[in-house]
Amino acid sequence: MAMDPTILRDSKNPRELVDTARRFAMSSDPQDHQELSKHLGSPDFLDRLDPPEAYQVYQPHQLGAARIVKTLMGQDAALPRQTLVNLTASRGFQSYDLLIELLIRALAVDRPASGPTIAYWEGHLAPESVYADNVVRAIFVNQTRPAMDLFERVMNDEAQDQEYRTNWLREMMLPKRNETPVLECCERMVIHGTVGEGWHETILEAVFDFNPAWYGTCRKPRPPLRALASGASKDSLERLGRHAILAMKLQTPGLEAKIRLAMKEIGRDWEDDDAVS
Predict the structure, then answer these.
(1) What does pTM read for this prediction?
(2) 259: domain range?
(3) Is 128 within a domain?
(4) Each residue's pLDDT tens digit, 239-258
(5) What HEC string does 31-57 produce?
(6) What is the dihedral of CA 73, 78, 79, 81, to 10 degrees?
(7) Are 194 and 152 in contact (CB under 8 A)?
(8) Which of 24, 75, 145, 194 could pair with 36 as two cysteines, CB 3.0-4.6 Å apart?
């Protein structure tokens, strides 16, 4: 039985609105989710959650809407996921930049990434977009094939700033480089050439190396311990490493040594392998 939406419609108490909306978000009734979607797409409702000036000074996670979105993200069911996806078509929810940023991040739970999610992300990946970093972070949380395919496309888009693409590899991909879907994406980019050859060594650096000088005064990511990689990830690392050493003429100083060291770390030592000179 659907819940009474009176509070969502009439209340001016932000706490009451958030608590009620979260109950709607946890409902298993499609009518409740339709009602919640309607209100989340209403500028009047959003302005009762947070005053318009809050959108000038808050971070996305500080908004009342963020608690509702987080509740939707935490439900292991199709309805809450669809409610999030439906917000991509809501003009009202796009009223504020912070809500766009919030939704971009929230869609990481849409697995596998649906057509509307990919379209929404791609629409915010235009060159010089202020949302691009948020999209790429969401991609590496999602890690499903449609999301990783989108990353390959944006990495191969020559209209994208080269520095941005390098940063995505070193700041966002590098901490996830033990994870099989990420490594399989790297195999496609490097071995199968889904991105231009000029990017192959930069990708390999992000997989096999870590240089604090890359980050200057910025916060540095933490590379994962290779010993903790799964068997499938180690297989992928080995394929990338062998391709780099056997099929490429590496120009980056020290990269081959880093690759060989990584092979030792995962138990795929090539020192006695006659195939590698």
Answers:
(1) 0.93
(2) 110-212+233-277
(3) yes
(4) 999 999 999 999 999 999 99
(5) HHHHHHHHHHCCHHHHHHHCCCCHHHH
(6) 30
(7) yes
(8) 24
